[in-house]
């Protein structure tokens, strides 16, 4: 089996790497927090690399799960001389981060020079589905052979892999999906703010939406359980959702297609981010928009 190197042992990386080991791939971990990487490797039965060079020497396929595409580029091309320079020609990079699709498309040719294949494969499902190994994965690639090579690794972490098109298309689809989710949440939030001002019971309003045409993911899974209860604990941070909406808005700009809803949704979430910070749960944005806190 191919040797897997994994860079980025955060909230998602921990369960994803555990599932890679369960699928019996030889796994080496690397994280900027070397102590955390060593502890996690010992817990799941993997190896921890002390440097990117050590990770590169131990890997045929590298998976990155990092905060953004800029850091992925730094890891591959700049940090400690660049991980790409430490990999053997024929190695494969799978970027599972929420990265900018234009940046991913531009990174591909830079990796092709030293003979490194590259596919983008961001995920949907957050931590609970990462633990269960049931992530939905969006796979972008310019080479069908690379897609086929990546799929056994991806299916150790998810149960559905969608081929989305050329390199960068997976990252584009991830951002667009989360933009739609964020716009839906914002629409429900506005409706409930207005409902409350008019004297309607927000709980009844959500119940009506859930059996009517206003039903969406947020009415079914977020507002009743987390917003109206004051729980605000979906497990998905405001900063992460705001970042994905920003990527979608940036894509509209890059494609010279200035669409109004994505721009306004981006402005709406950036306002909540500026007021509450990125570490709070995304559902807490309702409080910022409603003038609370």
Describe this structure in words.
The chain is α/β, with parallel strands linked by helices and 293 residues long. It folds into 2 domains: 4-166, Rossmann fold (3-Layer(aba) Sandwich); 172-289, N-(1-d-carboxylethyl)-l-norvaline Dehydrogenase, domain 2, CATH 1.10.1040. It is 53% helix and 13% strand. It is built from 13 helices and 9 strands. It has helices at 13-22, 34-44, 52-57, 69-77, 101-112, 126-132, 144-154, 169-198, 202-210, 217-227, 238-254, 260-276, 285-289; strands at 4-7, 27-30, 47-48, 61-64, 92-95, 117-120, 123-124, 135-140, 158-165. A 6-stranded parallel sheet has the order 3-2-1-4-5-6, with helices on both faces. The protein has a 3-stranded mixed sheet with strand order 7-8-9. α9 runs antiparallel to α10 (217-227). The chain is elongated, with a radius of gyration of 20 Å.
Layout of helices and strands:
Layout: E1 4-7, H1 13-22, E2 27-30, H2 34-44, E3 47-48, H3 52-57, E4 61-64, H4 69-77, E5 92-95, H5 101-112, E6 117-120, E7 123-124, H6 126-132, E8 135-140, H7 144-154, E9 158-165, H8 169-198, H9 202-210, H10 217-227, H11 238-254, H12 260-276, H13 285-289
Parallel strand pairs: 1-2, 1-4, 2-3, 4-5, 5-6, 8-9
Antiparallel strand pairs: 7-8
Helix pairs in contact: 1-6, 4-5, 8-10, 8-11, 8-12, 9-10, 11-12
Strand content: 5-15%
Structural class: alpha/beta
Q: Which sequence of strands runs across the widest sheet?
A: 3-2-1-4-5-6
| Count of separate structural domains | 2
How much helix is in the residues?
A: 40-55%
Specify the biggest β-sheet: 6 strands, parallel
Number of strands: 9
Q: Which CATH architecture of the largest domain is right?
A: 3-Layer(aba) Sandwich
In sequence order, what are the helices and strands, one letter per element? EHEHEHEHEHEEHEHEHHHHHH
GO molecular function: oxidoreductase activity
Protein name: NAD(P)-dependent oxidoreductase
Pfam families: NAD_binding_11 (PF14833), NAD_binding_2 (PF03446)
EC number: 1.1.-.-
């Amino acid at each position: 089996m191919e040797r897997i190197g994994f860079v980025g042992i955060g909230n998602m990386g921990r369960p994803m790497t555990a599932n890679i080991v369960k699928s019996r791939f030889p796994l080496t971990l690397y994280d900027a927090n070397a102590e955390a990487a060593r502890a996690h490797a010992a817990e799941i039965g993997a190896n921890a690399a002390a440097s990117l060079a050590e990770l590169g020497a131990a890997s045929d396929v590298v998976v990155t799960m990092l905060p953004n595409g800029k850091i992925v580029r730094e890891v591959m091309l700049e940090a400690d001389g660049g991980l790409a320079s430490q990999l053997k020609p024929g190695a494969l990079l799978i970027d599972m981060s929420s990265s900018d699709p234009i940046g991913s498309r531009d990174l591909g040719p830079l990796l092709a020079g030293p003979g490194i294949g590259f596919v983008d494969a961001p995920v949907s499902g957050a931590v609970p589905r990462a633990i269960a190994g049931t992530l939905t994965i969006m796979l972008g690639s310019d080479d069908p052979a690379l897609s086929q090579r990546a799929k056994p690794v991806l299916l150790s972490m998810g149960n559905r892999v969608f081929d989305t098109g050329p390199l960068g298309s997976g990252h584009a689809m991830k951002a667009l999906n989360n933009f739609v989710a964020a716009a839906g949440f914002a629409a429900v939030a506005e409706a409930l703010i207005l409902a409350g001002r008019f004297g309607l019971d927000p709980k009844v309003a959500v119940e009506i939406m859930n059996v009517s045409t206003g039903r969406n993911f947020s009415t079914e899974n977020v507002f009743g359980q987390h917003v109206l209860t004051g729980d605000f604990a979906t497990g998905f941070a405001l900063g992460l959702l705001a970042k994905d909406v920003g990527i979608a808005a940036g894509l509209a700009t890059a494609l010279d297609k200035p669409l109004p809803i994505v721009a306004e949704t981006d402005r709406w979430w950036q306002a909540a981010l500026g007021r509450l910070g990125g570490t709070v749960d995304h559902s807490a944005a309702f409080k910022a928009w409603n003038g609370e806190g």
